[in-house]
Give the backbone structure.
Amino acid sequence: MDTLNIGGNEGDRFYRYKMPKLISKIEGKGNGIKTVVPNMTDIARSLSRPPTYPTKFFGCELGAQVNCDEKKDRYIVNGAHEAARLQELLDIIIGKNANTQKVIRDCKACGRRTEVDMRHKLVTYILKHPPSTPKGKDGKKDRKNKKNEKNGNESPTSPTRDSAESDDEITKRIVAEAAELPIADKNAKDDDWAVDTSPEAVAKRIKDLERDVRTSLIVDDDDSEGEQEPHESFDEWLEDNNDARNNDVYKKIKELGISKDTDIVLKHLVLHLFPENFQKNDNIEKQIQKRAKLFKKFVLNPDDQLALLGATEKLLNEHKGLMESKTVCKILMGYYQSDLVEEEVIQAWIEGSNSSKYKRLFKRNASVTYADEAINQDIRNKAKPFSNSIVSIE
């Protein structure tokens, strides 16, 4: 397996600290495409960190959901990502190098220990998921870890490791000589990289930590790895951008990957794009015609037409001011004139699922009913004048 110098120090070919080169494997297609890192465990072992930390960092930086299955040794980042891009992000996390228990970063080459950026979402994740005792390849605790735990000693991953652990002779001699040096005076001035332990600095760090934890409890859900559902994101975006152009709305739908969820997309579009204009009860047909091109992207067959009418039932149910026969007929006329709904589908909707002629159509679209049946029947009764007017015209 190819190896790299940890931290991107490629100028020193004899650098002691190395790691495996990151490998990425893209699986799936369409909305289900994902990137698997097969050697994440080996990479994390060389960094002395749990493999979930770098994986979570990838998700935070790329704005993607991640899935960590430690039992199956599978670490996944949603979306298609090249190995070179993930390697760049890995170099960033090596720079941060967060020690999970003390929230510091420590360099194994020079021993420098400094605080990490407490504002990053990865720090919140680390505080909630402290590392477990390192395990061997067979999934059991290493024999050395068991012995240390039994004797009450520190884990081999502790910063105060045994100086005799896999060091060369020169390093052993340096460590032995360092152990004989006198302990520094407590009143001596700290080095530039030392942690400030004054009461003011400690109080400030605690305050910052509490703020980050409160923020994470609001916006970071562990079950969803801190990511919001696409439909919820679209609903919030429409609420803030109900005057957006048709092209911008359609681009947002494609960006979130929900274009195939016709029923839900139509519901969001109807509930957010029409209420304010419909409440004015003027130029309803004009407002529908303005959005007709956008709706035609999703209304492609009778099933979709019935879904549009189901979303309209939800709109009328939430805005009682629209529950007038005249307004209901205006909305249907707008759909009809914009070629969004055909006559026979409107007839099927008004007659309801009891109509033997359209019973099959309703059976396929049972999920598009959003309001109480009694309310739906009231809406359909108010729509009958429109149905009669179409029949009379023909």
Notes: The first strand starts at residue 3 and ends at 5.
